Amino acid sequence: MKKLNKKGLVLAFVLLLAILVGLGGFMYYRSGLEPVSHVENPIEFEISEGENADQILKNLKDNYIIKNELVAKLVMKQKGLSDFKAGTYTLDKSWTPEEILTVLNDPNAAMSNQVSITIPEGYWAKDIAETVAENTNVSAEELMALWNDEAFLDEMIAKYEFLDESIKNPELTVALEGYLYPETYFFYRETNARDVTMRFLDEFDRNYQMFKGQLEGSEMSFHDLITLASVVQFESGHPDDMKLIAGIFENRLRDGYRLQSSVTVCYALYEYDSWLDCEQNYEVESPYNTYMIDGLPIGPVCNSGIDAIEAVLNPTPSDYMYFIADVYGDKTVYYATTYEEHLANIEQYLNY
């Protein structure tokens, strides 16, 4: 009887182990069948002449288009989807492995339903909305409304760690200004405002994860940091100047000076014909106008890129307190330590 009991225990253990292995394998397989993303996320993918199935599946995995090479290979064999065609395809990370493999087996798969949209650094939210509207079925009005929609903002604050209650200040012109990351995107021509916005925020989050370690010990809130970065971005497009300008703003904030940045006047006006309008209307009442308020604007004045953010995180130390950009010439930035030097630069380079 003891021998039988021992054999029974061994058999039970082996059976349990087989069940666990089988269950684990099933879960592994099921997970590999799921798409990488649950929101639309178009991406270009190229198959070169001579690439074999293993190379193609590895490239799909390396580009985060599929979760699992082995599961995709099983799908490929089960469905007979191994006749890959060389060429450039537009795939989507929200597709299943079978959907992706089906497209890659179709030599007529085209990009006619896709559009490439480049958002330059320094664009305002309204510029971004108009650019998207020009290339898709989503109107600028839809996007602008969503970017100020309280319920949507609450949902995004819960989803993204870089967003907080600061974006719900009713005095902000556009709540998500500053967080619509400038980059080149592929969108479906037929899409919706929510998916477009999520792409911008996902890209912001991807970059945020790379620099968030530098935020430890910062005396600024993240919203203030992005606000200052937007002013730096608006003032200059060159990384070296950005770091010097960020350092000047740091000096002015430290010593109790107002920032007195003309770009904040531009945003306060929101509509203007020329740069001169921004220079001549510095008394406009607005929580964005740093000629009229102490400290930073209430929120970002454009959507800045990584260089401007890095400039605020790592400004170049100097004794400068003033600067001007030759807006009528080659955009060179001229710096000054004293107000008298600053006035001389204005007289020489701007002459108004």
From TrEMBL:
<keyword id="KW-1133">Transmembrane helix</keyword>
<dbReference type="Pfam" id="PF02618">
    <property type="entry name" value="YceG"/>
</dbReference>
<comment type="function">
    <text>Functions as a peptidoglycan terminase that cleaves nascent peptidoglycan strands endolytically to terminate their elongation.</text>
</comment>
<dbReference type="InterPro" id="IPR003770">
    <property type="entry name" value="MLTG-like"/>
</dbReference>
<keyword id="KW-0456">Lyase</keyword>
<dbReference type="GO" id="GO:0008932">
    <property type="term" value="F:lytic endotransglycosylase activity"/>
</dbReference>
<protein>
    <recommendedName>
        <fullName>Endolytic murein transglycosylase</fullName>
        <ecNumber>4.2.2.29</ecNumber>
    </recommendedName>
</protein>
<keyword id="KW-0812">Transmembrane</keyword>
<dbReference type="GO" id="GO:0005886">
    <property type="term" value="C:plasma membrane"/>
</dbReference>
<keyword id="KW-1003">Cell membrane</keyword>
<keyword id="KW-0961">Cell wall biogenesis/degradation</keyword>
<dbReference type="GO" id="GO:0009252">
    <property type="term" value="P:peptidoglycan biosynthetic process"/>
</dbReference>
<comment type="similarity">
    <text>Belongs to the transglycosylase MltG family.</text>
</comment>
<keyword id="KW-0472">Membrane</keyword>
<dbReference type="GO" id="GO:0071555">
    <property type="term" value="P:cell wall organization"/>
</dbReference>
<feature type="site" description="Important for catalytic activity">
    <location>
        <position position="235"/>
    </location>
</feature>
